[in-house]
Each structure stands twice: as structure tokens, then as C-alpha cells.
Amino acid sequence: MTYCVAIQVDQGLVFAADTRTSASFDDIRVHAKLHVFDFPGERCFVLMTSGNLGTTQAVVARLRRDLEDGVTPNLRSVADLNAAADYVGQLLVAAQAQIAASAQSEGVKVGATLILGGVVAGDPPGILLVYSLGNWIAASPETPYLQIGESKYGKPILDRIIRPHTTLEDAARCALVSIDSTIRSNVSVGLPIDLAILRAGEARIGERMRLDADTPLYAEIHDTWSRKLEAAVRSLPRFPWEPATAGAPLQQAAKTPTPADAQGAQQQ
Amino acid sequence: MTYCVAIQVDQGLVFAADTRTSASFDDIRVHAKLHVFDFPGERCFVLMTSGNLGTTQAVVARLRRDLEDGVTPNLRSVADLNAAADYVGQLLVAAQAQIAASAQSEGVKVGATLILGGVVAGDPPGILLVYSLGNWIAASPETPYLQIGESKYGKPILDRIIRPHTTLEDAARCALVSIDSTIRSNVSVGLPIDLAILRAGEARIGERMRLDADTPLYAEIHDTWSRKLEAAVRSLPRFPWEPATAGAPLQQAAKTPTPADAQGAQQQ
To answer: Which domains does chain A have, with CATH numbers?
Structure first.
């Protein structure tokens, strides 16, 4: 499996992807799923991939070959981000179709889903989710992030935090927490994490990092997030039967008999 | 869909369940999925249900009828919690089998999954997940919670927080946050939330609440949790290109040119 998330805020774009691929439980490998096509000052695209690795690597290889060969369309020739998504979608459909017949007989799933984001100088930046059919949807201020792969574990933190006015770095921290939560709850998603940031008004990748278990920033995020969450849970409102005093040792509350105890007797 | 979670900590058991059922997007209803069988001082069971509502209501109805009719086994006659799970599992298999043939032809899924927890006086309390085949697994100190239904959204907060030494009330707060996160990220899970607490050493339900949008406690949890999370995200480590000063307005960081900007030019 895979987990990739792209976030669009007023200050720019954040891309983050895990790197674990799994053909089965005993065939786990590390492959990059975040691919950068950067033509600084002119245009810049980030492609993140989920699904059949043969399919997605074929798409990425073809994108690079079209650029090298000067075949049009290519990522440098397309008019805008939407046209880039159309082009990527066509390559995706073609890559799937090439092996679909033999794959079906073998019971192999060849489908893939992509996130394409970036900017063409002069246009606003954007992020799009390209489906296996080649069609796509774009993020919007109401839905400022897109996910592919194992998306459920990391969705609540995005739903709570990400708004168009969220700063780019807070959005990036949120993306890292979203992936870290997914890694912790699901073995099919794993380190290292690839992170790329594109600032609004710039046609280039602004920052790029690979975070592994021994990267100080990631280790610190990983170690401190649980403590922050625990403190947040503890600071939530008391139940009616708990002492009202904020900050009182919670151990005291559990053994205090309250009128509510007696209600238990009336329930059956 | 459904989301139910049971947590076992040293201080006792927490049960929490949403109440939304959906036959389709245009057939959404409220049905209780948390059922209490309380014989105070003697024994106490909580059953939470996920899956086909006809199946789960048949199981609950049969459990109550067996108690009323004095048919054995029943929840009052079984020797211990494991025997209760065996009995509940048998009723579950029977309820599914009764309609399986006609259901298959109609394309209806009749399966259900249950969480049974509680205590028989003199035994330690426990929680078990009863599968549709009638078999079951128990929670343990290493895996101190069980979930049924739409479990992925609410799993990370449990993985981060719940340990055997977590207080009963913190575990209950965590369960509420886990369900609130799921409700926010998935429309198939909805309010109100049913909550039940059983304290270790007592053979009765200690506390029981139904929390809806206008319940002050729930409204406060719902409103403050996002703010707590946002503060937690903001307090995470700075990126290398951000000013090191903790608490500096984050807006300043995004526009500061740094050496890392230049690296973008080297990536393609």
C-alpha cells in the first residue's frame, strides 16, 4: 500500500509521500513515490503515485522520456496544469491497458491513482487527483487537500487543521503527522517520508527533504506528538462525575462513588 | 456503517458507539448499537454491534428472550465471559444462517461483527471481538482496545494514547475523540454517541451517557479538540529553514529566502 497527501494553502503547496511498497507481506521494499519535474522559474510539477508499481514507474519513465526526446505533448510543452493532468492521465490509461489483458488472467491489479501538483509560471498553483480512468479532480478552498492510497488513518488530522489560511510550514507539519499516524497504525505504509514544498509565487520547488527514523526533525516529531496528544486528551472537559478541579490527578476520580453509580442498577 | 470501540485499562472498561445506520445514502436512521445487560453485583455485559441491523437486532432480541424465558445458556447462566462470547457467537451464526440463503439471492450482506465486554463477579473484566463466524479474540495489555465498523479514522488516537495505565476517564475521553474524528471524516458514522463505563472491581455499569451535539460535554470536546490539535501541530519542531525562535509568527517564515531555495534548481 501507499499513503501520499498533497495540501494547497494560500502560501503554496505541500507534497508528502511514504516510500513503502509491498507485493506481499514477505516482499516489502522502498521505492520513491514522489517525483519532481522542476524547471525553475518556468514551471514545476510534482507527481505522487499509488497502486501498481509497474504501472506508475512506466508513467514516470514515459514522462521523462517524452521530455528528453522532445515529443509533444510533454510536461514542458503543455499549456497549463489541467493540460498536464490530461496528458498524465492519458499515459496512465495507456500504461494500464498495455498489460491489462495478461494481468486479468493472472489476477494482478494494474490500476494506479496519481496526484499531480505544481505551477506554470503566471498561473496559480494547484493540485489534482488523477484517477485510473485518466479523469481528474482538483482541490479547492473547501477541500484543500488530496490523498491517495491508505488515506483513512491520516484524514482526521487534515480535516481538523488544514484551512486555506494555514501557514505552509504548519501544513507541512500536519502532513508529516498525518503520515506518521498512518505508519504507526498500518504496516503497509513506511519510512522514509519524502516531502516537497512549493511556495505561491515561485515556479520552483522551494524545499525538499527525505525524513527517516534517524532524521532529527522526524524523530522529534514522532517522539513528541504522542505526548502532545496525551496532554490534549487530558485537558478536555471533565465528566460530570469527576472532580471539577482542572489539573487534579485523574487517578482520584475513578474511585469516587457518585449518584451516577446507582443508575447502573436501573438499566436492565 | 458503524463505529464502536471498547477499551480495557487497569481501572476498568470503556465502551463507546455511534448510532447511525444506513441502508443507503437516502435511508439514514438512528439505532442504538450499545446494549447493556446489567445484573448489579453479580455480572454485567455490554454488547456493541456492527453489520446487518436485522442480524444484530435478532441476536440482541434472542439474548433478552433467553433471559426472560430462563432458557439456558443465557447471559446469567454462563460460567464466565468467554462462555458468554461462545453463546453470543452461536446466536450470531444462527441469526445469519436463518436468512443466508434468501439473502444471497437478493445480494444482501447478512454478516455482523460484535464486541462483548463485561465481568462476572470474582473474575477480571474483559473485552472480546466476536466475528461473524462465531469465533472471538480478546484484548490484551499489548492490544488494549477493540474496534468494529469504520475503524481506521479513529485508530491513530487510540494507538497513541491508550496504555494499560491510562486512567478510565482519559480512556473515555480518548474514545469520544476517536468517534468524533470518525464522524467528522465519514458521513456513515453519526451522533449521538452512547458511552458506558465499568470500573474494575465492580460488577455493574458505573456510568452511562448518551452524548449528542447539544450535550454540553460533547459540544465542548468537539469545539476544543481541533484547537488543541492545531496548537499541538504548531508546537512541533521547526523546519531547518524556519526561524529557530519558538513562538515566532509563522507567517514570517514562509517568505524568507533561504539557501534551501536555491537547491530547488538542482533537482531536475
So the answer is: 3-212 (3.60.20.10)
Under DSSP, the state recorded for A80 is S
Q: How far apart are CA B138 and CA B127, in angstroms?
A: 6
B7 CB near a chain A CB, below 8 Å? no
Beginning with the edge strand found earlier in the chain, give each strand of the sheet holding A126-130 in spatial order: A34-39, A43-51, A112-120, A126-130, A136-138
Q: B137-157 burial, b if ≥16 CB within 10 A, otherwise e?
A: ebbeeeebbbbbbbbbbbbbb
Number of H helices, E strands in chain A: 7, 12
Provide the pLDDT for residue B106.
82
Residues in A closer than 8 angstroms to B254, CB to CB, are 11-12, 167-169, 199
Q: How many beta-carbon contacts under 8 Å exist across A and B?
A: 202
Find residues 154-193 of chain A whose CB sits inside 8 Å of chain B.
Answer: 154-157, 159-161, 167-170, 172-174, 177, 181-182, 184-185
Q: For residue range B160-219, list pLDDT tens digits in order.
A: 999 999 999 999 999 999 999 999 999 999 999 999 999 999 999 999 999 999 999 999
Phi and psi for A203 in degrees, rounded to 5?
-105, 60
Smallest CA–CA separation between B57 and chain A, in Å? Answer: 17
Contact check, Cβ <8 Å, A177/B220: no
| Residue among B249, B227, B246, B229 at smallest CA distance from B238 | B246
